[in-house]
Amino acid sequence: MKLVKVKNYEELSAFAAEKILEKVRSSNRVSLGLATGGTPVRTYELLIDDFKKRKTSYQHVHTYNLDEYVGIAADAQTSYQYYMFEHLFNHIDIPKENVHLPNGTAENILQETQRYEDAIDKLKGVDLQLLGIGENGHIGFNEPGTPFDRTTHVTELEESTREANSRYFNSLDEVPTHAITMGIATILKSKEIVLLASGEKKAEALYQMFNGEISNNCPASVLRNHPNVIVVADEQAASKL
Ligand code: GLP
Asked: Is 83 in the pocket of ligand 1 (CB under 6 A)?
């Protein structure tokens, strides 16, 4: 696992955007694993800026998001699908049919998790996976305790995760209790992973990720077993390293 320390959120976002652009330009068929949350917002803005200025095309890019809430309609403002269209897809030339997220309102949710896993498995993992990290060390929505061999599945969110994400909802009560998430085994199939951590709230999770045991108490620690991971941390997130 390689650590890249940068000064601040802007530099972190520029690094991530450049990595994504390199990948997008590298081949005529590219799969990207994408993340939501506050951290990648500026990265996506920089991709949009690049699209406006340099017209880097995404016609050949297929995206697979890490997770989606269960029970939130795809077109609701709080869905991760809505987030992705607002923050990125509406502003670049990616074909809609190339965009993949789990369907959190599927009638048969188990079948949906299998369908999603099969699609990623067919690629033998995405080419580049972008990750954030939860304050408790979660990746995607793989909370502490999730076995490392889980593939895409339905997970119950920790109270602390619901609270951290409640800023996107009118109240904590509205935050879903469950989500569909790529499993750790799904994430580990990725050919390359870039994890972004910004702010002092992430410092302890990063400390555990690098220095704690590789254990499901800190899901992100498993990334030490992957051959091609870059962790990009700003000064505050890296303050305990
Ligand atoms: C959510 C998402 C994760 C994300 C994490 C951190 O739980 N499911 O994919 O990495 O939040 O979010 P933020 O970047 O807002 O700190």
From this structure: no
pLDDT per residue rounded down to tens, the chain (241 residues): 999 999 999 999 999 999 999 999 999 999 999 999 999 999 999 999 999 999 999 999 999 999 999 999 999 999 999 999 999 999 999 999 999 999 999 999 999 999 999 999 999 999 999 999 999 999 999 999 999 999 999 999 999 999 999 999 999 999 999 999 999 999 999 999 999 999 999 999 999 999 999 999 999 999 999 999 999 999 999 999 9
pTM for this model (two decimals): 0.97
Instruction: CATH number of the domain at 59, please.
Output: 3.40.50.1360
> What total number of domains does the chain contain?
1
Which three-class secondary structure state does DSSP give residue 196? strand
226 is catalytic: no
- Answer whether 39 contacts ligand 1 (Cβ < 6 A): yes
Atom of ligand 1 nearest to the CA of 141: 8
Tell me the ipTM for this assembly: 0.96
Give the domain range for residue 29.
Answer: 2-195+213-234
Q: Considering the domain boundaries, does residue 31 fall inside one?
A: yes
Decide if 240 is inside a domain: no
3-state secondary structure 98-142: HEECCCCCCCCHHHHHHHHHHHHHHCCCCCEEEECCCCCCCECCE
Catalytic residue, from 62, 100, 138, 153: name it.
138
Relative to the CA of 67, which ligand 1 atom is closest?
A: 8
Minimum CA distance residue for ligand 1 atom 1: 37
In a domain, 206, yes or no: no
Using DSSP's 3-state secondary structure scheme, residue 68 falls into strand
